[in-house]
Amino acid sequence: xxxxxxxxxxxxxxxxxxxxxxxxxxxxxxxxxxxxxxxxxxxxxxxxxxxxxxxxxxxxxxxxxxxxxxxxxxxxxxxxxxxxxxxxxxxxxxxxxxxxxxxxxxxxxxxxxxxxxxxxxxxxxxxxxxxxxxxxxxxxxxxxxxxxxxxxxxxxxxxxxxxxxxxxxxxxxxxxxxxxxxxxxxxxxxxxxxxxxxxxxxxxxxxxxxxxxxxxxxxxxxxxxxxxxxxxxxxxxxxxxxxxxxxxxxxxxxxxxxxxxxxxxxxxxxxxxxxxxxxxxxxxxxxxxxxxxxxxxxxxxxxxxxxxxxxxxxxxxxxxxxxxxxxxxxxxxxxxxxxxxxxxxxxxxxxxxxxxxxxxxxxxxxxxxxxxxxxxxxxxxxxxx
Amino acid sequence: xxxxxxxxxxxxxxxxxxxxxxxxxxxxxxxxxxxxxxxxxxxxxxxxxxxxxxxxxxxxxxxxxxxxxxxxxxxxxxxxxxxxxxxxxxxxxxxxxxxxxxxxxxxxxxxxxxxxxxxxxxxxxxxxxxxxxxxxxxxxxxxxxxxxxxxxxxxxxxxxxxxxxxxxxxxxxxxxxxxxxxxxxxxxxxxxxxxxxxxxxxxxxxxxxxxxxxxxxxxxxxxxxxxxxxxxxxxxxxxxxxxxxxxxxxxxxxxxxxxxxxxxxxxxxxxxxxxxxxxxxxxxxxxxxxxxxxxxxxxxxxxxxxxxxxxxxxxxxxxxxxxxxxxxxxxxxxxxxxxxxxxxxxxxxxxxxxxxxxxxxxxxxxxxxxxxxxxxxxxxxxxxx
Lengths: 385, 385
Description:
The structure is a homodimer of 385-residue chains.
Chain A: E1 6-7, H1 17-23, H2 33-50, E2 55-59, H3 63-74, E3 80-83, H4 88-99, E4 103-106, H5 117-126, E5 132-136, E6 138-139, E7 144-145, H6 148-158, E8 163-167, E9 186-190, E10 202-206, H7 208-216, H8 226-233, H9 244-260, H10 262-282, E11 286-287, E12 298-302, H11 309-320, E13 322-323, E14 325-326, E15 335-339, H12 346-362, H13 373-383
Parallel strand pairs in A: 1-13, 3-4, 3-5, 5-8, 8-9
Antiparallel strand pairs in A: 2-10, 6-7, 9-10, 11-12, 12-15, 14-15
């Protein structure tokens, strides 16, 4: 039979059957009572997932649209901004601010490393007029998870009123991200990650501080304008036609997410990540991310010198049906990335790892121990209570 | 049993079963070979539907995002623009240009009327520096279809190099719209209309003239940037994660659309519109749109003085399961709008009209003839070969 596909990339992630079926529900009038009830339920659920009592908005767009929305709604051309480009997505966030006229100071961080809260605080001391700090919770291109709580705390010590905008797209639900508890102003989510629904939606929280900034912010915006969205939401509407399939899916997925609970979701992701790291290292491969900054959502692995990432990925896909991701930007062939977020369980992770070990062996890459020793390392993690 | 729903609004429109099922396909890697093949097929099909040999791009966004993309990609702040706000969507197009810093001259047209090519030409003679003309093919808020061919021809006589940007969202495939044949620079489509797929995608054609303007255009843009999209499309990729469900659906829908053929699709819509107008008038109601400018996609009906639109719509929905639309903006309660576009056939139209006639009768609105005379007028249209 043709190969079954095991999708293990950091998004789009596998979508549960009942969510897929919800995405295929017949269309409804987006100005009618059925839609209004749906939207009320979705916003209430999103607030729980974002850990906020403030506003959350949904835009029909990819996560990149959410990054743009965050920037253009709270800033004005010429505003000083501190960005921390720790990888491809952090770079993108900074570039968006620049395209819209912000004056961006970049705290450079080596790819694979986590940003240091002290260095960010130092940058903020040098930029006393900075209006905003752009952060990436989980950098998808390098597999690095940031201590947003620590960074935000240090940043507020230096500049209590700074706007903290956090790209939470690939990390939220896989690792803790407390919008209100950590005093974050705009947190951006994206549907195709641990939310377990297809791509096409971005979610944004908006703090009181962000609303106050919004009222002064002069970057041009229309499609992504918070005020237009808020005005429509007052009557449970949207300013333009919403992406119904993803919203139908989100309803089912949110019920799943809230039933599991955020702590359990985070524990599940942390365990899968730990098992993946243990196995990969037992196969003699190196983790790309700095120790202590490992992502729960994906694991970035340095490709062995004798095999570019493309060779391993191609063999996994063509012979085993296992789809993993390559690197991005300057490290495209230097790493491959194993996704373990969203609708993924221990069995998916074990199958992926066993397939990776087999692929390395078949490609002639010397394993440090007998075949199976890699998977065994993951099994041991999963055997812990 | 609970009422079946007959969705007869000008978008979202009913989606065929096989398209809905395609929307529920499992996720794939948007950087893998399967996706690349999909995108190639979609772009080739869209070019046929847009009647262009030039570029067509797909963005994950509502149609409003498409309007924004058209404006920000070819204009600079301070550019003079002539807009023709013939209704809510024409107004929106003009407002977007203004938000991004264009200096907009509006050719005012009474709602329900079509823009006059001569008046537009006169406005262009008074604005010799105008860089762009913003037009609406089918104004969804008033049920007016414009003679884009005539307007474009007159406009080019006055200003041969002007950029002609056309909101084709609700009219394309229901009425003719020739991107290359009429020398249009950017035409914008939206998925939830006659394309027969759910909301979430906007499509844009880009002419050579538009590309030349794009290279000079300084309005800020990132998410909707044509150049970034074009660069990714060179390797059959996208600059960020695409909205897979709608793209899977588009593949199936495009095969249906191209199998029917554009002329047959337009004839079908024109017939359903003619039947609807005949029935509505036989029920003693007035059409809102000016004679000779009737839309093929929807029919706007003036609500009788004794019954606001809301009363008729509520009764249709709650007692008959027929979902029709109200008015928008200043004419919210003054009109109701009957959608007949996309995956809709004669039977759907007959059922909607019979239900409307019954509802008027039950509400106590005096019909000019016996019950059934309204539907009969539609039947006579459908009985013609």
